Amino acid sequence: MNYTASKGEEILVAEDSLIPTLADLKSKKLAFDKGSNAHYVLVRSQAKVGLDFSGIELVYLTQSKALPRFCRGEIDAWVIWVPYTATLAHCRFREHR
After folding, report:
1. Residue 78's beta-bridge partner residues?
2. d(C-alpha 64, C-alpha 45), whole Å
3. DSSP per residue, 21-52
4. How far apart are CA 36 and CA 64, in angstroms?
5. Which residues have a Cβ under 8 Å from the Cβ of 66 and sit 6 or more positions away?
6. Ordered per-residue pLDDT tens for the chain, 97 residues
7. Beta 9-14 vs 77-81: how paired, if at all?
């Protein structure tokens, strides 16, 4: 399901994640680069499905710092600029669109 009109960012979760929808992010760790386009997409996505940020653990990380943590499973979801997903070749993930 596409939660935003954006075609440049994605909300990623691990391939085996138990997070099927944005609503299921509650009490999960969600990483993004603060003040970036990804941050904007996250705000818009949450608003579109009627959620706020209470109960979500926001983790402000640059893409290069978020990549290893996402691959190790230390963060549950990651809002990322689509061209950067090529660096995730060794990580198993799925997109929330």
Report:
1. 12, 31
2. 23
3. SGGGGTTSEEEE-TTSHHHHHHHHHHHHTT--
4. 14
5. 31, 32, 33, 59, 75, 78, 80
6. 334 444 677 888 888 888 888 888 888 999 998 888 888 888 888 888 777 778 789 999 988 899 899 989 999 999 887 777 766 766 766 665 5
7. antiparallel
